């Protein structure tokens, strides 16, 4: 009787120890999982931040170098000047209708809208085109919006000098770049 | 029910651990996940200002005898006239009018001056500090002038 009682006691003690071990392992696994979730969130937030900075830097580079594109910038006797040639703008807009051209500029700019609004000597809301260079003030150079839901957009603008070769005059426009986040 | 000394110590320990955990969470929230302040992109700011300067300097003034603003700046340095008026004063009025027409919300005050060697001539002095840019103007007779443009 005494031996059986002692054996039963040992059995209960063993069961308690197993339960304790299971509980310890369970808590340990929960802690590890919490740590992993925390690490993943910190990492993904950091990568997201880096990607946003990269996108902003890319936009800045595109934005700064836009006026220097040979397709747009004006030159005199082969020497580049700090202005945008409106005759080139008209040609750029008309040539942007072909599929190859659209693909080329999509690779270059991505999902963006690029517009120039003339503000000096006069403002004019009429849209310019290949056939209409005079009596207009809005140059819609490029527009490619993402299909579906647009996350957010970053807008940058800068004054630019517009050159009219026909009467050798200069105007001032505001170049607006809208960058769509997909 | 009377608590034993050991139980009271355990409760104290739990409170300390909970407080430490809350402190750690706050630290993580405020320091690790801190939203970075909007990065002021200096290159974009400078590009903006250089473009503004280039756009203003290219405009032609004086309809009777059209002349670019940058050429007018050289005339101002040399004490010449534009449209029958003293060049510096005429330029100052014209530049104010141009910038007023552009109606930029970003900057309200401007300073423009031109130097050649150690000599300098001021056209506008609305800013003592601010973002500065400049351009070198070369005349047909190979004279080099530096025109400065500051906004604030």
Description:
The complex is a heterodimer of chains A (182) and B (152). Chain A has a domain at 69-180. Helices cover 47% and strands 27% of the residues of chain A. The model of chain A has no long low-confidence stretch (mean pLDDT 85). In chain A, strand 5 (153-164) and strand 6 (169-180) form a beta hairpin. Chain A is rod-shaped, with a radius of gyration of 33 Å. Chain A starts with a helix and ends with a strand. In chain A, strands 1-2-5-6-3-4 form a six-stranded mixed sheet. With 182 residues, chain A is α+β, with helices and mostly antiparallel strands. Chain A contains three helices and six strands. Chain B has 152 residues and is α+β, with helices and mostly antiparallel strands. Chain B folds into two domains: 1-32; 42-151, no CATH class. Helices cover 46% and strands 25% of the residues of chain B. Chain B has four helices and eight strands, in the order ααββαββαββββ. Chain B has helices spanning 5-32, 42-58, 69-77, 87-102, and strands spanning 60-61, 67-68, 81-82, 85-86, 110-116, 119-125, 131-138, 144-151. In chain B, the strands form three sheets. Chain B has a four-stranded antiparallel sheet with strand order 6-5-8-7, with helices on one face. In chain B, strand 1 (60-61) and strand 2 form a beta hairpin. In chain B, helix 3 packs antiparallel against helix 4. The longest helix of chain B is centred in the N-terminal third of the chain and has 28 residues, at 5-32. The mean pLDDT of chain B is 85. The chains are: A alpha+beta (182), B alpha+beta (152). At the A-B interface, helix 1, strand 5 and strand 6 of A face helix 2 and helix 4 of B.
């Amino acid at each position: 009787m005494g031996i059986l009682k002692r054996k039963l006691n040992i059995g209960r003690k063993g069961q308690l120890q197993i339960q304790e071990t299971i509980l310890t392992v369970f808590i340990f696994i929960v802690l590890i999982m919490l740590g992993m979730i925390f690490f993943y969130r910190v990492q993904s937030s950091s990568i997201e931040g880096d990607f946003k900075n990269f996108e902003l830097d890319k936009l800045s580079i595109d934005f700064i170098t836009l006026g220097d594109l040979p397709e747009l910038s004006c030159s005199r006797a082969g020497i580049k000047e700090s202005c945008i040639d409106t005759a080139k703008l008209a040609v750029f807009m008309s040539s942007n209708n072909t599929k190859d051209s659209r693909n080329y500029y999509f690779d270059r700019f991505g999902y963006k809208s690029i517009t120039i609004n003339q503000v000096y000597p006069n403002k004019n809301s009429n849209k310019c085109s290949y056939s209409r260079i005079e009596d207009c003030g809005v140059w819609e150079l490029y527009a490619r919006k993402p299909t579906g839901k647009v996350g957010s957009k970053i807008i940058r603008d800068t004054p630019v000098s517009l050159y009219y070769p026909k009467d050798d005059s200069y105007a001032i426009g505001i170049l607006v770049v809208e960058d769509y986040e997909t | 029910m009377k608590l034993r000394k050991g139980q009271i110590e355990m409760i104290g320990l739990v409170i300390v651990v909970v407080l430490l955990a809350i402190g750690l969470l706050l630290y993580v929230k405020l320091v690790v996940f801190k939203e970075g302040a909007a990065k002021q992109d200096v290159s974009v700011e400078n590009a903006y200002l250089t473009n503004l300067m280039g756009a203003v300097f290219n405009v032609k003034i004086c309809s009777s005898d059209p002349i670019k603003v940058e050429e007018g700046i050289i005339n101002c340095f040399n004490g010449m006239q534009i449209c029958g008026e003293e060049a510096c004063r005429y330029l100052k009025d014209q530049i104010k009018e141009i910038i007023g027409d552009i109606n930029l919300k970003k900057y309200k005050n401007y300073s423009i001056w031109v130097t050649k060697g150690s000599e300098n001539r001021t056209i506008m002095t609305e800013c003592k500090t601010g973002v500065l840019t400049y351009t070198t103007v070369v005349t047909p007779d190979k004279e080099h002038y530096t025109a400065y443009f500051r906004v604030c």
